[in-house]
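RECORD TYPE: inverse folding
INPUT: structure tokens
STRUCTURE:
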């Protein structure tokens, strides 16, 4: 009886943490643009605030470029070097992004929340 070929582990096209990071990054970008347009928010990242002063188009382009660059590098590393390390970095990055976003959101909106 012929022996079945060993099952190969399917690799997902993108790490779940990176997919979540893309979704959250896009949501962050869209909500930032919305609230900036309405005059209810400021960009608290000093580098991105300086970019925003140069124009919204440049701000959007740089935000998308940095997000894409991160995902491309981590996905390359996952496929070529160490999937375990890439997964760990992805999870840490996602947790850090959520923490920074939550903390900055809370500080910027403390006046609205605390009255």
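DESIGNED SEQUENCE:
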């Amino acid at each position: 009886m012929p022996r079945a070929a060993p099952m190969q582990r399917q690799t997902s096209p993108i790490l779940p943490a990176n997919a979540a990071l893309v979704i959250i990054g896009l949501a962050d970008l869209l909500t930032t643009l919305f609230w900036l347009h309405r005059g209810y928010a400021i960009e608290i990242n000093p580098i991105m605030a300086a970019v925003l002063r140069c124009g919204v188009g440049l701000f959007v382009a740089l935000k998308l470029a940095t997000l894409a660059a991160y995902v491309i590098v981590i996905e390359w590393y996952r496929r070529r070097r160490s999937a375990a390390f890439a997964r760990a970095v992805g999870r840490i990055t996602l947790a850090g992004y959520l923490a920074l976003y939550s903390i900055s959101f809370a500080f910027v909106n403390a006046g609205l929340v605390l009255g």
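NOTES: The chain is about 75% helix and 0% strand.
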